[in-house]
Design goal:
By secondary structure, this protein is mainly α. It has helices at about 5-25, 35-55, 60-85, 90-110, 120-135, 145-175. Helix content is about 80%, strand content about 0%.
């Protein structure tokens, strides 16, 4: 399996984990803050680990890899912190989840400018930032509202990541393995 194909599978796995998190959160929006903190912590940790793996696979491309690694490190830190201190108030959870969504979204947006099929990844980055802003605008909304915002965000972002992975998989299958970035000239790769 080529490095590009491994990256496609990582993106697909990230999409699946987001969809599962979103579905669980929307199916049980009455979760207590304790359970929501655990579920969010597990999701942020898995998502962060996948971003770090993606950064490692593309370490030869320093800036996008550094942005992926930074977003991944944020998830790897935010996940355990949230899960280890599940007694955090809803306000603390909102602040942490909002910061994670905004920073990760901004870093993903920057990385997406270097990738093929980036419109799906750009859209997921915008959804991430929007979810973070929504959480910060109404930190007093309560656990159910937090669960709904996080659940909808995760379903939309996960779906977009799955679409991007599928499109990249099809491109690789049809045209053979190519780098995930644009050519050095900045010209777009024709599809």
């Amino acid at each position: 399996m080529t490095e590009e194909m491994k990256s496609v599978w990582l993106l697909g796995a990230r999409g699946v984990s987001a969809v599962v998190f979103g579905a669980l959160t929307l199916l049980w929006p009455q979760l207590t803050v304790l359970a929501l903190a655990w579920v969010f912590g597990a999701y942020a940790l898995v998502d962060g680990a996948m971003l770090i793996a993606t950064a490692w696979r593309h370490r030869h491309e320093r800036r996008p890899a550094a942005a992926c690694a930074a977003a991944g490190a944020l998830g790897v830190v935010a996940g355990p912190v949230t899960a280890l201190w599940p007694g955090l108030t809803a306000l603390a959870l909102v602040v942490m989840a909002g910061a994670w969504a905004i920073v990760t979204g901004c870093l993903e947006l920057w990385v997406a400018t270097r990738m093929r099929h980036a419109r799906w990844l750009r859209a997921s980055a915008v959804v991430s930032v929007a979810a973070g802003v929504l959480l910060w605008l109404r930190p007093d909304a309560g656990a159910v509202a937090i669960a709904l915002v996080l659940g909808v965000y995760a379903l939309i972002a996960g779906g977009l990541w799955l679409i991007a992975a599928w499109r990249e998989y099809r491109t690789l299958a049809e045209h053979g393995s190519r780098s995930w970035t644009r050519p050095a000239s900045g010209a777009r790769v024709a599809h």
